[in-house]
Predict the structure.
Amino acid sequence: MSNRFEKMSVFEQMRAGLEDSIAWSKGQISLKTTTLPAPPPKAGAAHILALRRRLNMSQTVFAATINVSPKTIQSWEQGTRVPSDAALRLVQVVALQPGIVEQLFAASAGNVSRRIKLKKISVSATRKSAHGRKRKLPA
């Protein structure tokens, strides 16, 4: 439908929309209704600071938690900048579900340690010989 709609002229798009409207009002077609979530609640400097302190996080750790820079957290807490709606949504999630932060940190810590182990294995499994060629080390 959308590909066909894009190829129509403006007049044809308006005509198709009006025809769909008439068909809907006659009960010939049904329309999909989607409910959008409410925008995230606004959070001032005091709220951000209180949340971070309640979670016992430094500015750096809190910044890493919501994927912003520590300078951004500082500016939010000083009131010089205001969080975007996306950042406010993350702040809302962290405030309502602080346990999710621990789950994320635990999951990412597992991934980091796995990457480190794999890297150590691949580095220790081969070594360059005196001639610059890689050779397998005895197991």
